[in-house]
Task: structure prediction
Amino acid sequence: MIGFLARRVLSSIPLVWAAATLVFLLAEAAPGDPFDRLREPGVSVQTAARMHEAFGTDRPFLVRYADWLGGLLRGDLGTSWSYRQPAAGLIRQAACNTLVLAGPALVLQFALGLAAGVAAARSRSGFTDRGVSLAAAALYAVPSFCLALPLAWLLAVRLAWLPVSQMHSIGAVDMPVSWRLLDTLRHLALPCLALVLPAASGIALYVRDQMHATLGRGFVRAARARGLGSRQAELRHALRAALLPVTALFGLAIPGLLGGSVAIEVLFAWPGLGRLAYQAVLARDVPLILGCTCLASILVAAGGLAADLAAAALDPRTREARP
Amino acid sequence: MNPGGLRRAGPWAGLAVCLLALAGPWIAPHPPEEQEDVAGARLLPPWTRAQAIVAGPRTLVVTGLSRTPSGWEFDRAGRRQALAAADVTAGPFPRFYPLGTDGLGRDVSSRLLHGVRHSVGLAALCVALALLVGVGAGALAGLAGGWCDVVVSRAVEVLMSIPRLLLIMVCAAMFRPSIPVLVLVLGGTTWTGLAKVVRAETLSFRDSGPAQAARAAGSSAPRLVLRHLVPQILPVLAVFAALRFADTIVLESALSFLGLGAPPPAVSLGDILASGRETLQEAWWVAAAPGAVITGILLAVRSASRGLAGLDDPPSMT
Result:
């Protein structure tokens, strides 16, 4: 197990390196001067040259690349051009905020999706099945940033139950801890709902189909024949087999959440990784973009690893088949 | 309505969207960027019948127009106003806004028709590019093997290890967004999944009877792929095309929504959604229309793909 883990972690290092290098090359190939947007119209040529000197962009490409790689190994992502702060600190702060949003979203979407999917499959084309399938098919077709607008209109504009943007209210710093937690939860509700509902619908549809397929299989009937109740046969045996393909979804859900949360974080002004990457891209802040890319590809690799581990836990065959 | 019926309706709805995309500019009542009278036509609700009158250099979009002994009386920009008959140089002309107008006085239905054309056309081009690259790279990796296989497989892994929207955002912002850049970027990041599938299919096809027979009859590698492999995996390709088409519509709209889509003369569904977001407090209809259209397209394309596949695909998480 340890060997397998180590192998997987080692094999994902070149991927992270290659992904970051790809983005480095892209930034290099882009036309124009990266500091054009920071520069006021009246800035002299000397000042512009000094800007390049200060950020080290006047050095040859290979030197900068080697310097950046060396920094990466030490955990130093360089200085952000637009914030003039260490990029690593900015990214750490934003990643924590994204975790506050994406963590509950990940848990909720799988919990909701599994519950709805299993309920639909167990009712076997009954009323629950039809209702869940139809609602999930409809919701799954609404991208999260499209869903966010009617949700915001209803819950924030019309009913005024929830705040529309930011992570805390103004003056939240002075509140007692429990109030501050409640305040963050209230701010979390809208973006989380917009992220969770479409993803949970997709999972529900998939789980339902997988369950339908496994419910008719021989081992479930054998379990019933052995005298297990329908509930136990369905949940212990059929669900376990149906969950196996769902674990692959778990690996996909992490890049999905990171990608999907860009629009949601921008829309609800949530100070997370997606919004930071968006701002970095707009400002053409190469160190910050590179840092965000590295972290994102590490998270993607971690998601894949988590999915593999979950599959191994559910299915002994995948454990033995591993080289 | 049962899921089966929905599945059968999918292709027809998809066809309707394609027709709408083709005919859009001809049936749109106004040009998509037309701002006849920003103050007067601003945020008119859906199904508004209005009038346009020309007074000197200005065109006024008004509602509740009535004739008075001295000239005209009408509602414009929330106020009852009057204009002497002598000042009116032309009009009134009827104006009709079936889906209302946005915050800049533009007709939402016209923008929507142009937006569908833009988004559907762009997505179709991207999927075509992805099919081309995916089949090409997958077949190359499978048939040639060796270092070709290594290069393609590693490229797929690297591209899959960056969240797509992030990569697309970086490319779109670095190289001024334009339609060719968007097609290259969106299509260039879509082909990875297909290449993997085609590679696996090619590996099992390479040594099969039909492949050996074709090779014995003297067919070259490209012919082997195009005439023998592609027809065999056509169902896979069709499902891939449908699902990636849906993803691309979403990604392109998200990109435009974030302001990184094609620049202004082009209207994307995401642009309309973004303008609807700005006026969400006063006017729900500007955001509702493109949202409903995107949902409709996704519903149609995905149900059609389920019909095509006859089996169920894992949900896309992009």
Observations:
- The longest helix of chain B spans residues 108-144.
- Chain B touches chain A through 51 residues (CB under 8 Å).
- Residues 1 and 7 of chain B are 10 Å apart (CA to CA).
